[in-house]
Every structure is written in C-alpha cells, then in structure tokens.
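Let's practice the habit of predicting before peeking. Look at the sequence and jot down your guess about where helices and strands might fall. Then scroll down.
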Amino acid sequence: MAREEEMGSGWIQVPAAWTALEPERLVGAVMIIGATDSGKSTLVRWLAERLLVCHGRMGWLDGDIGQSSLGVPSTMSLAMLDGVPEGLPRPRKSFFVGAVSPRGHMLPLLVGTLRLRQQATAAGVTALVVDTTGLVAAEAGGGALKEWKIELLQPQTVIAVQAERELEHLLAPLRRDRRITLHVLEPAAAVRRRSPEERAAWRARLFRDYFAGGETVRMVLRGRPVYGLEKAVPGQLLSLNDAEGFSVSLGIILGRRGEELEILTPAADLRQVAGVRIGDLRLDPGTGNEI
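Done guessing? Here is the structure:
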C-alpha cells in the first residue's frame, strides 16, 4: 500500500515498492528510466532526499531536456545536495543540448551526461541519481539511447518504471547483466498523463520565466568560437558557454549584423563567456512558445 511521506515540496503518496529499494544501500550512479508521464521525476526527487540521509553529499543529474525539473528545457543540469532543500535545488552546472527532444540530438545528450557525471565525481558525491528523457521506443531510437547511456555511465543500479511492457526491449538483457542491479517498478497510482499541448505549455512557462528579467545585449563574436553560426536567425536559442563548455546562460537571438549578435539574455556578466553554441530550437521571446 502507498503511504504519505513529506518531501521538500510537500506531501506525496509513496508506493510500497519505492521503500523496498532500500535507499541506504544505493551508491554510485543510480539511473532512472521510463516512458513519458511515468512519474520518473517524482521518484527521482524522493530518492534524492532519501539518499541524503546516507550520504554527506549526493548529486542529482537532470537529463530530461524536454520536461526539465532543475534547469531550463534544452539543457541538462547537475545539482549537489548537502541537505534537503525547501524547493528544487539550484543547478551547479548546465550543459546545453539546444533542443527539447532527443531525436536528432543523441550525441550531445550522451556527451552532456558524461561530462556532468565527471563533475559530480570530481565534487566528491558518493551517490548520483540520473533522470533521463521519456524516449524509450525502440523504433524511435530510445532503446539504443538508453542502452548506450547505461554503457557509458556504468551505473551500479538501474530503476525502470514500466506500466506494461514498453521497456522490455531494454530490460531483457539488463536482467542478465551482472554489472547492474535492476529494479522494475510500476508507475505510482497518482501519475497523470499530460497531453503534448500541456507539456509544450509547461516548457513555454519555464522559458518565459527564465527570460522575464533578461536584457538586450550586443555581443561581438570575433575571437570567440561560435558553433552553429549558420543557424543565427531571430528567435534561435543559444547558450553562452564558459571556458569548459558548460552553459553560463541561455539567450535568444534578436538580430545579427556581421560579427555582432543582438541577444536577449538574463546573463549579468558576459566576461565569463568563452564561446557560443547555437541550438536547433526557436522561441518567441515574449511568450516562450516554440516557433
């Protein structure tokens, strides 16, 4: 039976199968996989808070670029937790993918996951919960993406949230892989499916809130590496990156004149910006809606 438990954001119904995971025994990378609207994000947050009891510092890697929990859609984010936050924790590092769907962007997803994992390891976390996108369909490449992400990160534990048999193409070999402890859970009863329109509206709100306090700045590109300059048209989303390739801030292109871009961005200080990466997503700066 489910029972009520308190999280930083309030009370939730926790299925008995979650507590059977024995969070105190989980170490290293713990990867969560499941289809869209399977309740992965709630499970990730509950698990992160429970792991804090057993670890002095743990990491939360939000790899869901479409329905982000920690950062802005189109980015992957890493947060470090030393104590239970009142709300969602602030990301320590962000990696820009530049899209809200894994389709056509699987290489940057894999690279970003590994780079953020390396940051967590360098920071001394002893447990890292990894949330993933809801793309799991084999015919869409979701199976291959999850398979190679598991091979890349080599998690000690994989937790799969499966409603029927939508993950079986992934789980069949994992059940025999002695490198991994596999747990298969049913979605929580309280999970509600959201329509594509609802998910798009959620992303638009996050983008709108993110850019609400932004300012228009002019950036001279000369001397900086710019990846994807051929996509520099009004409305295009970009990332202002630091010297390590992590995102300092996002921006929306408002115009271009030669070697200068006019950008809407909340970044207060552009001196950290060592490079620019232009994504594949276009936004309406006023509404946050995808164009």
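How did you do? The radius of gyration is 19 Å.
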